[in-house]
Amino acid sequence: MFGTYLLRELTHRRKQTAIIAIGMALAIALVIIVNGVAAGVKDAQASVLASVYGVGTDITVSQTPAAPTEGEGGAPAGGPSFDFGAADGQTTDGSTSLAQENLSAARGTETFDATALDSVLAVDNVSAATGTLTLQNTSFSGEIPDFSQMQQGAAGDGTQTGPPSGGPDGAGGSSFDVASFTVEGIDVEGEAVGPLTAATLTEGRTFTADDLGSNVVVLDSAYATSAELAVGGTMTIGGAEFEIIGLVASGSSDAATASNTYIPLDVAQTLSGLDGQVSSIYVQAASSNDITQVQTDIEDALPDATVNTQADLASSVSGSLSTASSLVSSLGTWLSVLVLAAAFLIAILFTISGVTRRTREFGTLKAIGWSNRRIVGQVAGESLVQGAIGGVVGVAVGLLGILVVNVIAPTLSASATTQQATGGFGGPGGQGGFAGGPGGQATETAAATTDITLQAPITGSIILIAVGLAILGGILAGVIGGWRAARLRPAEALRSVA
Amino acid sequence: MYELTNVTKTYDQSKRKVTALDNVSLSIPDGQMVAIQGPTGGGKSTLLQMLGALERPTKGTVSLGTSDLSTMADSKLAGIRAKEVGFVFQSFNLIPTLSAQENVETALAPLGVPAAERRARASAALASVGLGDRGSHRPTELSGGQQQRVAIARALVKEPDVLLADEPTGALDEQTRDEIMDLLEGVWKDRGLTLIIVTHDSAVARRAERRLTIKQGKVTEK
């Protein structure tokens, strides 16, 4: 009887059924699409972060760089400097060629004692930790005129040697080039956590424990292509020659890895003069539930350190990906909640309206012996089916929406930024020579800028939640409508002109 | 047997009290056919609702056999209505979305009758009122007289002890009225149930073995 009556009512009152089902379907579709896009944005953010911070990294430990102070000879600290003596360089045909290479801590990073790693490993629920040293290799090369001519002219005998000459333009001018690439010192004996874990080996090999102390380098494949370097070849880092043993690429096809080059940590420390120093410690917690406690414990063990979780790092992702994330989490979520609330309200109001229209019908059923429970069950059952129909249609529309998003596959840009102190340009120093090097004026530097294609994943849990919400809406409407029906006194209901 | 003792029923309507039944005492033995007449607003329907366990008195007691209907819980009253009392209404009160057969089955649903038996009994009830071939028709596809027959079948399918009819012929023409009254009278005689009919119509009332008049809430024998 229950099923027959339910079917008859739903097919007889098609307009009400359709309105409730459509309202519910729209809400459910929106929930699925918003959640799918949110999951896609989250995956994209994780991909960007993984390319910088590695897979499996839950926490990073670093030190906030201090603002640089005035250095010796009026040159601000914070950037590489190049000093040339009067006799440096090779002079031919009135020009002197100069070249120098400098391996130093990357701008905007602060190094600290590697013994901090021991403190981190001693913290409870830390399953793995490794230290890295982030460096920048800067090479300075240039051509200047032969100054011995100028010195002869300034001897004080009053004679002029003629107009300036020499230099790259032959008229006494100079020309300089500055090139740089990033170098990451990796602990080759370390555990499987860190920036290289997100990379995929595309050629050659990666590090083994035997590479400790060796001048071997692994390159980012995109950098290798641009610098025309290949496995088996060599390159110079910090003035030393390195053998190229492998190429790696980011796990995300659109992102680069965290650094242009990777060398053993001990070699990096020695070449840069930063023995026993690291820039970052990458930490993996035993489980996601432990992350907050591990963060707190590390902060207690290392009070001067900056300890960030993945959630903190996520806020460092900027660009249109960040904008999309904000849009989805704020507008998208609120819109879903609003539409869902509206759908529930429509279902409730229509059900109550239906009960009111059927007052005499329910009064008659009560008169012939139907209990309140039976009548409430009938009304609730009808609403539940209406909600379920809306849920099924909503899931279909939601999946179609996700398909559209994935076909369009919008491209979003993302940059993971890091903190950096202000710096300045160097000044002259030393007789006959030049000193100085480029410094930074910006307050932030992008660690990785990349384009990410947004893909919205379809997860079974989202669909189950969406269907659950539709059924919940139906139950809610049914319970409220049924309660109204149960409150009807049979005699009054029979007096009602329905 | 019905026993009403000093029954009063008052309603609150727009800040004033309306007395529908005023200190009514009445006995109706089992198997009696009773007609209740009276002017509109006199309390006829209220008395019928009291007998049918649809309303409780404001004062006094209403008992059906050993059951005191005036103090029973709603769920127990529903049980009494489901098993012992059949209702026939002036406007037929059929469920418009259900067929004639399904309308009759609704009376058996609260009794937990299995589906196959429910269908069989409903079919037999319809046949007993002459509508064995109209089971699949919706109420809108039936005439007024046919709809009332379906309502009577619905009332009788559970084999009640009491059949209460509130103006059962009020919406019908003369010929159909007589057909319906013949049907009700025949059922009363065949089954020995207590039949109580509320009616304006003297022609209907004359068929009863006992006639009561209710006016301004007070009942008198005719």
Describe this protein's structure.
The complex is a heterodimer of chains A (498) and B (222). Chain A contains 13 helices and 17 strands. Chain A has 498 residues and is an alpha+beta fold. Chain A folds into 2 domains: 2-44 and 323-413 and 456-495, no CATH class; 89-153 and 164-304, no CATH class. In chain A, the strands form 3 sheets. In chain A, strands 1, 2, 3, 5, 6, 7, 8, 9, 10, 11, 13 and 14 form a 12-stranded mixed sheet that branches. In chain A, β2 and β3 form a beta hairpin. The longest helix of chain A has 40 residues, at 14-53. Chain B has a domain at 94-158. Chain B contains 7 helices and 10 strands. In chain B, β7, α6 (174-191) and β8 (194-198) form a beta-alpha-beta unit. By secondary structure, chain B is α/β, with parallel strands linked by helices. In chain B, the strands form 2 sheets. In chain B, strands 6-7-8-3-9-10 form a 6-stranded mixed sheet. A 4-stranded antiparallel sheet of chain B has the order 2-1-4-5, covered by helices on one side. Chain B is 33% helix and 28% strand. The chains are: A alpha+beta (498), B alpha/beta (222). The interface between A and B is medium-sized, with 26 and 35 residues.
Short description:
The complex is a heterodimer of chains A (498) and B (222). Chain A has helices at residues 2-12, 14-53, 116-121, 147-153, 221-226, 265-272, 291-301, 310-314, 320-357, 359-367, 372-408, 460-487, 490-495; strands spanning 59-62, 90-92, 95-105, 112-113, 126-145, 175-186, 199-204, 216-220, 234-237, 240-250, 261-264, 277-278, 280-285, 306-309, 317-318, 411-419, 444-453.
